[in-house]
Amino acid sequence: MNKKRSSLSKFYLVLVMAFFYLPIIYVVLFSFNSSRSLSNFTGFSLQWYQKMFATRAMMESIYYSVLIAVIATLVSTVAGTIVAIGLSKSSHLIRQVVTQVNNLPMLNPDIVTAIGLMLFFSTLNIPTGFGTLLLAHIIFCIPYVMLSVTPKLRQLDDNVAEAALDLGCTPFQALYKVIIPQIKEGIVSGALVAFTMSFDDFVISYFTTGPGINNISTYVYATTKRINPSVNALSTLIVIVITLVLIFSNLLPLIRARRNKNEETA
């Protein structure tokens, strides 16, 4: 019975892994196809990568995606961290009300948030474009930063910050010398989530962008009605970059731990 259950678990694991990774392998494989076919591999070629770099609209979409994701991450991380710290010092009622309001954008379907932002900008007669797209990304990224930072603040010992103030630190010095170093893991996690959400977003971007401003998701959607293997090349590059970042982020702590161990034994 246990062997059957173990075999079934392994089969289920393989099935899930195949479901997630086979489409990615398929995209990577056909990004090197010599023909435009998406079902018949006719030979190895780098022409779709060359075409990708030669296509101005595609390169602009990459530029806008990275630029908006970086700015939205920086602004939302700073704003979300400050709000979370302020809430931790507020009354229980205010903290509960703001927390529930903060959860609404994450619980709402993206289409509801997107239509709401679109109506908000149109009501104020704000022309859609880069500014509205960036503002929309900042708005929906802040709740994710607060969600990551708040648990770390709950674990924080308030006596440490008060001791820093008693020892002569100004409130700002106590903030960046005492509080922030103790919650930096939550801040980094929130920033990574914010960057991922911004870079990956389609629905909100589609409803808040303007003419000539496309990120990767809206550009790919605009090209789905025709076969464009350059999109496979773009997807492959994104997969490679993400894989390298994951490898680096996992190896860096190991390298630091080994270096600290060598320094201790030296």
The CATH architecture of the domain at 57-229: Orthogonal Bundle
* Uncertain segments: none
Described by strand count, sense and barrel closure, the largest sheet is:
none
- What average pLDDT do the residues reach? 84
* Mass-distribution shape: globular
Classified in CATH, the superfamily of the domain at 57-229 is MetI-like
CATH topology of the domain at 57-229: MetI-like fold
The secondary-structure class comes to mainly alpha
What's the count of strands? 0
Rg for CA atoms: 23 Å
In CATH's first tier, which class of the domain at 57-229 applies?
A: Mainly Alpha
Helix fraction bin: over 70%
Please tally the helical runs, counting DSSP H or I stretches of 4 or more residues.
12
Termini separation: 53 Å
Note the run of SSEs as H and E: HHHHHHHHHHHH
The fraction of residues assigned to DSSP E strands is under 5%
Topology overview:
Elements: H1 2-30, H2 47-54, H3 56-88, H4 92-107, H5 110-123, H6 130-155, H7 158-166, H8 171-182, H9 184-200, H10 203-208, H11 216-222, H12 230-265
Helix pairs in contact: 1-12, 2-12, 3-6, 3-9, 3-11, 4-6, 6-9, 7-8
Summarize the structure.
This protein has 266 residues and is an all-alpha fold. The protein contains 12 helices and no strands.
Describe the fold and architecture.
Helix 4 crosses helix 6 (130-155) and helix 7 runs antiparallel to helix 8 (171-182). The chain contains 12 helices and no strands. It is mainly α and 266 residues long. The protein has a domain at 57-229: MetI-like fold.
